[in-house]
Design a protein that fits this description.
It contains 17 helices and 34 strands. The chain is an alpha/beta fold. The protein folds into 3 domains: 185 residues, no CATH class; 105 residues, no CATH class; 380 residues, Glycosidases (TIM Barrel). α16 runs parallel beside α17. The N and C termini lie far apart (73 Å).
Length: 731
């Protein structure tokens, strides 16, 4: 019998052993779930230096913690006693590379393999949690993520080439936020958490406040004159207060009639009140407890009865405006309930965006511009002369008419594209193409300047990289931005400006690196962005300005040193479940609206071939989170939209080496691990449109499943009774 057949039979046997493996939920059995659903870490140890880079958890009772946590969750090792684990081990199924056991379709086997993975323990727990989540064990998955955050706050996972890293504590926070959003039936909320990660020469530094998990029940509505503080023990961060109606939120005050701790020995008084009023963050970290919110109904303000959050819903229009950024055509407005909305010509505008860079096969974008591309020399830009290859036969048939890219974008519900302009492109920038686009479709543009990314505008060499501490380079970049804004500010298609593209990435030789030292000198970089933003506001008060960021890195510096920034653009590829704590983190540290400037997934499953279903599923789940956090929705209320990456496959983007890539061939060699369905990024397959064989480029468009699926969602939001987020308060 061959080895492959043996493994197949063993896998089949494992499925039989686990009777619930392929059931609805859960898909397999946890034999030791632990004695506590929400582990009370303060019973078994001590939190130290909460909210600092020196955060740690000192275990005093390892045995008690293990019993409370259950199998697969450190420090418990009882998974080896799980009968299914033993059988899988005896069958030889637990050997091999654990990195190949990510989202394989068999979460039980993934779970078993990752519990014994010889990797960083924090990374191990993250993937244990993900396997548990896939298997329907949501409470146990929360335990795994929470343990990773608390026990291994300094853990990091490195890129394939070792050029950059991401922090486990922040990833765990994101996973918890995503899981709780998707499963409100758990009645659990994470209160007061915060993680700030920053790469240093000595390694990753993370300031960690683990917050606390609480079980929430909304049993009634909130009285108009009362103050409700649910998060009474957030380890040093500002308490979450809800000032309703005419009531005022007093930080540190707990209304004893509204918050009741169930799992405390002394249930007669609010046990966290003293801790919340002290400056000792460690004392303020209360035990994990149940919270019940109760009060008298009021006709003016209602509580949403979603069990995952407690939020005010205003039944009428909202008059109070906390701040209005911009005075012209495009404004960003924050209302009295803290929610943000983009307003264009007096109406709410939620960005349904697309990163647009349709590079012709056989070329690179710095040598061929779609704004000027006219391959058939008929005086019309090629982007207005594409055709849908509906039957995928790589030729234009009679029933496949010529159409513009922008008509196809509008037809799917897209209202915005994003593009960057370099100094070399500006003198001959073909704004006539965008004028025609706007006239025919109404699609607007967020216009970007790299401000030193990839050395554009700074005058720096590629080897040296842009240096924000050098005055000459800063002045050069300011001049570049000024020239761009002066030339384009009056164009009707301009929606906003964006500065940089992942300039906060560490200075490295990685093929995707942006070649700046913004992460090394974060205050200098943030102050520079503030200076440039202030200059733009003076030149053009009609359009907001933001920065294009890698995840939420440096957000605390932007909050302190860049108040002129109007919004934060976030490039985020952290998994199909969404963007985790991104919304809350920006809310805490910057108080600006968020646009997800890049999100998406490739359509090629490594070693299997094209997989449009996986790409579409990923994109739609990401969009669900973006919309969920928009104004008037259940989430944070600070999302103003997002941009899918990207419109069409670009064949020059082999992630191994851009400059040696065969640009006339669509490569599929995976060298860049990412949290995608197959665990890798295929850089040349990100488009929701393909280019067929490439022979009919730049005209041929092959629609992928994501195009039609996203069309259904976007048009559904616009045309099936759903208003733009925040529309009600604009009346």
């Amino acid at each position: 019998m061959s080895k492959n057949i043996s493994c197949y039979l063993a896998l089949s046997m494992l499925t039989c052993w686990s009777g619930t493996l392929w059931g609805e939920e859960p898909r397999f059995k946890i034999y030791d779930p632990g004695t506590e659903e929400i582990v009370d870490y303060e019973k078994y140890g001590e939190f130290r230096n909460v909210g600092t880079a020196q955060f740690s958890y000192m275990i005093f009772d390892a045995q008690g913690l293990a019993l409370a946590s259950g199998e697969g969750i450190d420090p418990c090792t009882s998974v080896t006693n799980n009968p299914d684990y033993k059988k899988a081990s005896e069958a030889g199924l637990l050997k091999g590379d654990w990195w190949r056991r990510v989202n394989t379709g068999n979460p039980q086997l993934d779970y078993f393999i990752w519990t014994g993975a010889g990797d960083d323990p924090g990374v191990r727990l993250l993937f244990v949690g993900k396997a548990l989540e896939k298997g329907g064990h949501y409470i146990h998955a929360l335990k795994a993520y929470r343990a990773a955050m608390i026990l291994y706050p300094d853990s990091a996972c490195w890129s394939a080439g070792g050029e950059f890293q991401w922090g486990v504590a922040e990833a765990a926070w994101n996973n918890i936020a995503n899981l709780l959003r998707k499963h409100p039936e758990l009645n659990i909320r994470l209160m007061g958490a915060d993680v700030i990660s920053k790469g240093e020469e000595s390694g990753l530094q993370s300031k960690v406040n683990p917050g606390r998990l609480v079980r929430i029940q909304t049993t009634a509505t909130i009285a108009e004159t009362n103050v409700v503080i649910i998060n009474t023990a957030d380890a040093g961060a500002t308490n979450e207060a809800d000032a309703v109606g005419t009531g005022e939120a007093e930080i540190g005050h707990v209304n004893e009639t509204n918050v009741v701790a169930i799992n405390e020995e002394d249930a007669g008084a609010p046990p966290e009140a003293d801790a919340a009023e002290t400056n000792d963050a460690n004392a303020a970290l209360a035990s994990e407890a149940d919270v019940v919110v109760t009060n008298t109904p009021t006709p003016a303000v209602q509580m949403k009865q979603d069990t995952n959050y407690v939020e005010r819903v205003f039944t009428g229009s909202l008059d109070e405006i906390l701040q209005q950024r911009g005075t012209g055509t495009v404004q960003l407005v924050q209302y009295g309930n803290g929610e943000w909305r983009m307003v264009v010509e007096g109406k709410p505008y939620f960005i349904r965006g697309m990163n647009y860079s349709p590079t012709k096969v056989g070329t690179v974008p710095w040598e061929w511009s779609w704004l000027w591309g006219d391959e058939n020399v008929n005086g019309e830009a090629d982007c207005f002369e594409v055709w849908l290859d509906v039957n995928r036969n790589n030729r234009q048939d009679e029933d496949e008419p010529t159409v513009s890219d922008f008509k196809l974008l509008k037809d799917m519900g897209c209202n915005t594209i994003k593009l960057y302009i370099t100094d070399a492109e500006l003198p001959s920038f073909n704004y006539l193409v965008l004028r025609k686009m706007f006239k025919e479709t109404g699609i607007r543009v967020i216009v970007g300047n790299f401000v030193g990314a990839y050395c554009h505008g700074s005058g720096a060499t590629w080897d040296a990289g842009t240096d924000y501490t050098i005055r000459r380079q800063r002045e050069s970049m300011k001049a570049s931005v000024s020239n761009m804004v002066m030339k384009l500010k009056g164009e009707p298609w301009v929606l906003a400006w964006v500065l940089g593209n992942e300039n906060n990435m560490e200075l490295s030789g990685d093929v995707n690196a942006t070649r700046t030292n913004g992460s090394k000198y974060p205050e200098t970089y943030a102050r520079f962005l503030n200076e440039v933003s202030k200059m733009i506001h003076a030149i053009d008060p009609d359009h907001p300005v933001g920065t294009g960021n890698l995840l939420t890195g440096l957000v605390e510096y932007y909050g302190r040193f860049a108040p002129e920034l109007d919004y934060l653009g976030v490039n985020s590829y952290i998994g199909e479940d969404g963007f985790g704590a991104t919304w809350e983190k920006v809310k805490q540290h910057m108080n600006r609206p968020v646009v997800i400037a890049e999100f998406g997934c490739d359509s090629y499953w490594t070693k299997k071939g094209p997989d449009e279903e996986a790409q579409s599923s990923y994109v739609l789940k990401n969009w669900e989170d973006i919309y969920y956090n928009g104004a008037g929705q259940p989430g944070a209320g600070n999302s103003i939209g997002g941009f899918v990456f990207e419109w069409v496959d670009e064949w020059w983007k082999d992630s191994l080496n851009y400059f040696e890539d065969p640009v006339s061939k669509q490569t599929s060699r995976a060298v860049f691990p990412m949290p995608f369905p197959d665990g890798f990024a295929q850089e040349e397959w990100f488009g929701i449109m393909g280019q067929g064989t490439g022979n009919a480029s730049p005209y041929q468009r092959v629609t992928k499943k994501a195009y039609y699926d996203l069309m259904k969602v976007w048009l559904g939001e616009l045309g099936q009774g759903k208003e733009e987020p925040g529309a009600a308060v604009m009346e």
